[in-house]
Amino acid sequence: LVMESAAKSTKDCLVDLTSQKGEWFLDDMCLSAGTMVRLLSLLPPPEPGTTLHAAVKCLQAAHNQYKSLQELNLNFSSIILPEAIQTIQREDPTVLTLLAELDSIIASVQMPLGDLVSQLQLHLHLLVTGMGAIPEGCQAAVAVATGLQEAVEAMFQRLGSSDPLSPGQMLLMGFNGLFDNLALGCCGLVSALATLHIPGAWRSVDQLRDAKLLAA
Question: Organism's domain of life (predicted)?
């Protein structure tokens, strides 16, 4: 919780956040979760359907999500980014065409992307905490984000139907695939968390209270 609290406050500086031992935030979280998973593996496996079994599943899902984030960062920095730089430097027409198409989609957004992200974060915060009605600005941002998502999905659907794929298409599909895998893991983690039953008496425990505040 200490590292996660620090990560929440760093915002755009998360890439520079390290633990007291000098390890990057994500590596430290993955190591901690992996250690807990390995320690639990030394115990007799819990019976399916029990509270302990659900808790173990949640921990495993969280560890897998941390590993997926590590893989995303590694694959982007070692594969996607170098390939993108090379294709742009040699002015590959398929890459430049896709970049122009993405630029046109972004230009069609009715508000700056920074403002859109801020409004979406506020909307998520209000949904999690249940504090007050959703402002019109947040509702407008959700509508804009939905339209943006539909435009991008339509582009990917069109690209996926062509065979063989061009270098630009392979680069973009590979980049998008990193986030698709992450989204699947996130859905699995959310589903696992939904199976947890937290006793009412535990709601005053500082660890649970602080974790809920972090989610907000």
Answer: Eukaryota
Indicate if the alpha-carbon torsion angle 37, 41, 43, 44 is positive or negative. Answer: positive
pLDDT digits (tens, 9 = 90+) for 56-80: 888 899 899 988 988 888 898 898 9
Reply yes or no on whether the pLDDT at 120 is more than 80: yes
- Is 30 among the domain residues? no
Report DSSP letters for 67-135, one per residue: HHHHHHHHHIIIIIHHHHHHHHHTT-HHHHHHHHHHHHHHHT-SS-HHHHHHHHHHHHHHHHHT-SPPP
Taking CA atoms, 107 is separated from 26, 126, 135, 159, 199, in Å, by: 33, 28, 24, 20, 49
Query: Which pLDDT score, from 0 to 100, does residue 141 have?
Result: 92
159 is written with which tokens? Answer: 């690209």
For 111, the domain range is 44-196
pLDDT at residue 20, rounded to an integer: 65
169 in a structural domain: yes
Determine, yes or no, domain membership for 1. Answer: no
Please tell me whether the overall predicted TM-score, pTM, comes out greater than 0.85 for this model: no
Task: Indicate whether 35 belongs to any domain.
Answer: no
pLDDT tens per residue across span 167-202:
888 888 888 888 888 888 888 888 888 887 777 777
Residues 6+ apart with CB under 8 A from 45: none
How far is it, in rounded angstroms, from Cα 56 to Cα 71? 23
| DSSP letter, residue 205 | -
